[in-house]
């Protein structure tokens, strides 16, 4: 064991020659983070300190995350000095000799201080010890973790050739004062199995409390094979009171860098809310290819699924649930959107490149609230905008910033979604898609007039040269929220709300009050009954047959139809 030791024994004759030094007087020549003080040097003078000999050690000096080390200190000095010198460990008073077990979350430096008054002047000396913390490939951060924010940030920064898995369990982590944390390849930031977000558990929380720029997201995913799953991510904007570029926070940015083939990035089972910029922002990488790396050939590379994305608001712009721009593509499935200015926003392309954006929206639920847009200022008018969006790449003559016309993205697939929002248009494509825009087998609470499109800029008429393909199997003027069944589908002993929209099934938990995706099924409530069929605690969904015989059921509403034996 390497012992860091500082002898404080000084002869009285040295008093005349010793100059007062400060902590910065000794450089860190060996690069270990500790100043290399000459043996016997002091920060300030005190006659009792002159006669003291102190030892401050840590064992072991290197530990794995979650392990402990022991700090030990002892001071020898004349007995007449006992009442004149006080001792502190990291600013807290301790006895003259002792030890303390520590479990640091990151590499840390500890300070042991001797201090006392001499002729009315406080003087002190100090000893330092360093503990290096190594992060294993798999770590758990929970409520027993000392400084969980530091543990999280350092674990994500720690380079590793292995797949990193960082689990969160029953913990709140404040990253307000932390700049963007980069998440590289082969990394999972997830909830522990016992603490994962469910209809019974809200889950761990990562949050910030101050506004920040759109270009300073909390997390920035830059690599492949990344999973973010199972906890809450909370922003600082709880109401529509934010304007300007300084208040456009993003929870997660996805912008892969230096990667020729982007694959397997997933954000799932999260609650993401109160971000005035965007809950999730996705952009492409155009470093080596004019068409970028996220395109129609790998539109499933980024998957946003089974999240609750809500109350992301900004006064006169942004306030997006998911924002796809800069030539990016994303697959967005089985999410619940509520209270966002736009549930889905699209930026047509990357600058002046031919790299156009696109998305697949499939089996999502858009709830009624949100869409509110206000002019900046106290007396600015407010109105309701649309929920599913793709901007054009040009502007009309009367504006230079709304991107209302021209080419609007590449391929836009909107299928089997349920949109109960009626305060404004459900869908607005602000130009002609380069490829195609398909609206297929969706359920709308509003009329077919709620699907809008712009065309080319200027000229006469609507200039729509590539119209949206609105299929005949879409259903309009139907609000499934008006037809709800009640049964305990989550197994907590309390009745939950069940909704069958005509394309998907959803359950609203009596514990969390949130909607969760159950299944992709076309049967509606008038075709179903609810009772316990198998041996678990959950209510099952039973298919009514014409002759009254219950021939098939879905276990908890989650499974495919199976025989009722």
Automatic annotation (TrEMBL):
InterPro entries linked to this entry: PbH1, Pectin_lyas_fold, Pectin_lyase_fold/virulence
Keyword Signal attributed: yes
Superkingdom classification of source: Bacteria
Native species: Thiothrix subterranea
Protein's name according to its UniProt entry: Right handed beta helix domain-containing protein
Signal as UniProt keyword: yes
Gene3D superfamilies according to UniProt: Single-stranded right-handed beta-helix, Pectin lyase-like
Keyword annotations: Signal
Signal peptide per UniProt: 1-25
């Amino acid at each position: 064991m390497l012992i860091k030791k500082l002898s404080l024994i000084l002869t009285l004759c040295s008093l005349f020659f010793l100059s007062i030094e400060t902590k910065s007087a000794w450089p860190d020549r060996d690069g270990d983070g500790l100043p290399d003080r000459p043996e016997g040097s002091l920060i300030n003078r005190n006659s009792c300190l002159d006669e003291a000999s102190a030892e401050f050690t840590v064992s072991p000096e290197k530990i794995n995350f979650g392990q402990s080390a022991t700090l030990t200190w002892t001071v020898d000095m004349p007995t007449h000095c006992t009442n004149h010198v006080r001792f502190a460990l990291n600013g807290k008073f301790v006895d003259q000799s002792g030890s303390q077990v520590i479990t640091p979350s990151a590499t840390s430096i500890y300070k042991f201080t001797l201090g006392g008054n001499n002729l009315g002047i406080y003087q002190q000396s100090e000893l330092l010890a360093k503990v290096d913390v190594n992060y294993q490939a798999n770590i758990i951060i929970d409520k027993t973790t000392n400084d969980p924010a530091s543990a999280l940030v350092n674990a994500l920064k720690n380079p590793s050739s292995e797949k990193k898995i960082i689990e969160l369990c029953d913990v709140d982590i404040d990253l307000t004062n932390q700049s963007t944390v980069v998440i590289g390849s082969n990394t999972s930031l997830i909830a522990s199995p016992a603490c994962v977000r469910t209809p019974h558990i809200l889950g761990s929380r990562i949050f910030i409390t101050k506004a920040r720029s759109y270009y300073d997201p909390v997390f920035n995913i830059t690599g492949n094979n990344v999973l973010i799953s199972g906890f809450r991510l909370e922003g600082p904007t709880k109401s529509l009171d934010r304007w300007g570029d300084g208040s456009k926070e993003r929870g997660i940015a996805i912008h892969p860098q230096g990667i020729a083939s982007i694959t397997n990035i997933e954000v799932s089972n999260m609650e993401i809310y109160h971000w005035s910029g965007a809950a999730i922002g996705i952009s492409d990488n155009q470093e080596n290819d004019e068409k970028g790396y996220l395109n129609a050939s790998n539109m499933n590379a980024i998957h946003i699924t089974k999240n609750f994305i809500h109350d992301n608001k900004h006064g006169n712009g942004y306030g997006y649930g998911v924002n796809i721009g800069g030539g990016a593509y994303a697959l967005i499935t089985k999410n619940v959107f509520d209270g966002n200015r736009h549930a889905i926003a699209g930026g047509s392309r990357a600058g002046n490149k031919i790299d156009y954006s696109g998305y697949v929206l499939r089996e999502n639920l858009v709830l009624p609230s949100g869409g509110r847009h206000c002019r900046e200022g106290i007396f600015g008018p407010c109105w309701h905008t649309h929920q599913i969006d793709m901007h054009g790449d040009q502007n009309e003559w009367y504006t230079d910033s709304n991107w209302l016309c021209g080419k609007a993205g590449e391929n836009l697939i909107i299928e089997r979604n349920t949109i109960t929002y009626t305060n404004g248009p459900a869908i607005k494509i602000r130009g002609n898609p380069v490829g195609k825009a398909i609206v297929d087998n969706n359920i709308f609470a509003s009329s077919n007039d709620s699907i809008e499109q712009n065309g080319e800029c200027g000229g006469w008429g609507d200039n729509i040269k590539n119209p949206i393909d609105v299929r005949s199997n879409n259903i309009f003027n139907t609000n499934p929220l008006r037809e709800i069944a009640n049964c305990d589908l989550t197994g907590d002993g309390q009745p939950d709300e069940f909704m069958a929209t005509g394309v998907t099934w959803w359950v609203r938990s009596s514990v969390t009050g949130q909607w969760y995706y159950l299944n992709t099924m076309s049967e509606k409530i008038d075709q179903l009954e609810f009772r316990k069929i198998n041996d678990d605690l959950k209510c099952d969904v039973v298919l009514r047959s014409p002759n009254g015989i219950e021939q098939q059921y879905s276990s908890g509403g989650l499974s495919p139809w199976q025989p009722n034996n």
